């Protein structure tokens, strides 16, 4: 358990809190593990306790063993969300957290008040590796197709909408493609890349827009659009929660932008876990309400 907690937390104090031990007890246990493996396992760095290659190799197998033991201890008992004190660790993309998390936390508070959620940031490229290493047990967002030892469920397909401030002078009349391309645009990219999905669609047609501002957080987009002449072409649900709060103007993109898939994914070892099944069901229902 201590090894697994150190992999997940990357910090001795947080790992101690996770397993209910003191930090000296965790340090003593780590020394014993180092002797057993013949490897440092974790080295200190400015980012905390970084696992060595040997620790990373061992982590998935150890996590799997621990989950099997937990399943045996739970036995055939049904999962009762209103009584459970379980902690779930979720990996959510910035977009998925913005869209799903408010309703998800509301449901958890209402139906399972003693359950706690730990939310870790993930993205298209790192979500599946996080599942493999066991640092999260469920991810939601847009990810590559999973390998055979993982499961995936489509939550919905997300389309795009254009948004500008309500009194934007260029939006007084319907905007055609030429007008769209003539404006300055806002791009949301968690990696900081000013050329994203929309730009790739435009490039396929030999077109290009002028991206004037690139931000790394979806939360910024509605407020930046409201306070400038920037035009944003972003996932529709991103602006859905802001429609009643900000005087924005919405219209369909002047080109066809294919939707993208928003899924939840998990490791196959969680398939039969009643608590995990309950959580997946809640995420599914919350997603259908967005």
Secondary structure elements and pairings:
Elements: H1 2-9, H2 12-19, H3 23-37, E1 42-45, E2 48-51, H4 53-74, E3 87-92, H5 94-111, E4 116-121, H6 127-133, E5 138-141, E6 150-158, E7 160-165, H7 177-182, E8 184-188, H8 197-204, E9 210-215, H9 220-226, E10 231-235, H10 236-240, E11 248-251, E12 260-267, H11 274-288
Parallel strand pairs: 3-4, 3-5, 8-9, 8-10
Antiparallel strand pairs: 1-2, 5-12, 6-12, 7-10, 7-11
Helix pairs in contact: 1-2, 2-3, 5-11
Helical content, roughly?
A: 40-55%
The parts where pLDDT drops under 50 for at least 5 residues are none
Please give the alpha-carbon distance between the first and last residues. Answer: 37 Å
From the spread of the alpha carbons, the general shape counts as elongated
Portion in beta strands: 15-25%
Number of strands: 12
- Tally of helical runs: 11
Radius of gyration, in Å, reads 22 Å
Describe the 3D structure:
The chain has 290 residues and is an alpha/beta fold. Helices cover 41% and strands 23% of the residues. The chain has helices at 2-9, 12-19, 23-37, 53-74, 94-111, 127-133, 177-182, 197-204, 220-226, 236-240, 274-288, and strands at residues 42-45, 48-51, 87-92, 116-121, 138-141, 150-158, 160-165, 184-188, 210-215, 231-235, 248-251, 260-267. A hairpin with a 2-residue loop joins strand 1 and strand 2. The two termini are 37 Å apart.
């Amino acid at each position: 358990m201590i090894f697994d907690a150190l992999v997940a937390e990357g910090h001795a104090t947080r790992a101690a809190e996770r397993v209910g031990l003191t930090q000296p007890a965790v340090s003593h246990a780590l020394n014993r593990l180092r002797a057993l493996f013949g490897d440092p396992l974790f080295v200190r760095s400015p980012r905390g306790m970084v696992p060595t290659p040997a620790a990373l190799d061992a982590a998935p197998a150890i996590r799997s063993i621990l989950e099997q033991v937990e399943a045996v201890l739970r036995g055939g008992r049904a999962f009762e969300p209103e009584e459970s004190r379980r902690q779930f660790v979720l990996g959510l993309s910035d977009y998925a957290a913005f869209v799903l998390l408010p309703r998800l936390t509301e449901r958890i508070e209402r139906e399972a008040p003693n359950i706690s959620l730990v939310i870790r940031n993930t993205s298209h490229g790192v979500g599946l590796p996080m599942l493999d290493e066991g640092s999260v047990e469920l991810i939601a967002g847009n990810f590559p197709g999973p390998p055979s030892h993982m499961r995936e469920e489509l939550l919905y397909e997300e389309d795009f909408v254009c948004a500008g401030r309500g009194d934007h002078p260029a939006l007084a009349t319907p905007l055609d493609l030429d007008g769209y391309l003539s404006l300055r645009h806002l791009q949301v990219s968690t990696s900081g890349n000013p050329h994203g999905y929309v730009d790739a669609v435009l490039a396929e047609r030999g077109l290009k827009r002028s991206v004037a501002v690139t931000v790394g957080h979806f939360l910024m987009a509605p407020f930046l659009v409201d306070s400038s002449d920037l035009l944003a072409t972003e996932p529709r649900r991103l602006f859905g929660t802001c429609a009643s709060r900000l005087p924005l103007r919405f219209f369909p993109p002047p080109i066809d932008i294919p939707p993208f898939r928003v899924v939840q994914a998990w490791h196959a070892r969680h398939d039969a876990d009643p608590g995990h099944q309950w959580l997946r069901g809640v995420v599914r229902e919350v997603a259908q309400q967005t």
